[in-house]
Write the structure tokens for this entry.
Amino acid sequence: MLRDRGGPRVSGGSAPTTTATRPDAARGGAPALPAPPPPGARPTVVIVGAGFGGLRAARRLRHAPVDVLLVDRHNYHLFQPLLYQVATAGLEPEQIARPVRAILRRQRNLEFRMTEVTGLEPAEKRVLTTDGAIAYDYLILAVGGETNFFGLEGVPRHAYGLKDIPEAIRIRNHVLRAFERAMLERDPERRRAELTFVVVGGGPTGVEMAGALSELIRLVLVKDYPRLNVKDVRVLLLEATDRLLGPMPARLREAAAETLWRKHVEVRFGATVSDYDGARVLLKSGEVIPACSLIWAAGVKAVSLTARLGLPTARQGRVPVTPTLDVAGHPDIYVIGDAAYLEAGGDALPMMAPVALQMAETAATNIAHRLAGTPPTPFAYRDPGSLATIGRNAAVAYIRGIAFTGFPAWVVWLVVHIIQLIGFRNKVFVLLNWGWDYFFYERAARLITTMEE
Ligand SMILES: Cc1cc2nc3c(=O)[nH]c(=O)nc-3n(C[C@H](O)[C@H](O)[C@H](O)COP(=O)(O)OP(=O)(O)OC[C@H]3O[C@@H](n4cnc5c(N)ncnc54)[C@H](O)[C@@H]3O)c2cc1C
């Protein structure tokens, strides 16, 4: 989508748009510095990250008098809330992701570059990438988060995080392979360890993952492995505090725990993991749980890139932003979504999709205000409520102060997720998949797709 009317300024890389390099760079010296924009050229807004925040900001700028350059290390936008369904063989990865170029192909003031951002030079107003430097007039950092292992050493080596498609596929392969290994195992204790699946973290991801995993095993895999004794299978959900789904009302938290028990998930409160070696989970209490699978859903933090940007960082490595979402001392740099740290009512805003989406709108609007010379708008978060599903027919919902559970909450969860999923094709395929699984107790994606662990 190259245009002849300026366009974002990229230096280095294989396919620059309008590049204007200094003579020293042309001679192969330091990375090329882009020349200042010609008089009258439109300012360039570089957006790093094509997740929830980055994509929304890009769309919001479609009629603004700017050129937008969207950068991501992947060529797709991922709908993370359904990742656990890929990990539990319910959906294929391509059903919850879509190429960024396909999503934004009609946006005339936008270009996309697949490259990894490695640093930032705020004084020169340029972003450093593995393919060269990119100059910006305004920068929106929407780089998201990563799994937080809280400094535990063994856990990141042996456990499975759930943050991206390859991780979800690894979990799927590992769970299915555990059943194949259990079929070959003669020692009953080792067989039980193969069939013990520990999920750590009682937030929405842990609750949804544990519920879906138990249903995969109890409704589907028992049919594939009739010779295995289902009594050997354990799914545990370990939570360090005394509650699941922290911010939800007590009634919903209790309903979630009860539903999980009904679905054969052993919920353990006050259970803090201190180490894991791939075969045994060690708890702070000294208890050891033999288990060959540990899925870590206990924490998130901003991507480690935020520590390499030369910007201040706060809790979880997030970059503190002003109420108008720019970084103090850097009025041209906006940080949004999981990577941004902003408090509301004394608490940090949660690392959730609605925060990223709403911040994106404010950041894009404020860039337009800057261009128009009008005062920026402070960010005000509107909480749309929270939802978590616990398998078929079961969910908890807290929307506009109303708490409800069971089938109605589950239907709301389904509708909300279908609406939010990007791409008509994805919506149709996911709906068909869910319908098929619901009526036939199936999970279509039960393939082990790699040989090695
Ligand atoms: C398993 C799971 C389930 C979740 N469920 C829910 C839910 O039910 N409801 C909810 O509200 N939220 C949920 N979340 C949280 C939600 O997905 C995040 O809050 C949201 O994605 C944050 O949006 P973002 O734009 O800040 O970052 P992201 O959507 O994570 O996007 C960040 C983008 O930046 C790119 N990127 C990162 N580093 C670089 C780099 N160095 N160079 C180039 N590109 C880079 C990434 O590839 C990614 O595309 C869930 C998260 C996970 C992992």
Observations:
- The radius of gyration is 24 Å.
- The longest helix spans residues 204-224.
- The pocket of flavin-adenine dinucleotide is lined by residues 48-54, 71-74, 80-81, 83-84, 116-117, 142-144, 162-163, 204-205, 303, 305, 337-339, 351-354, 356 (CB under 6 Å).
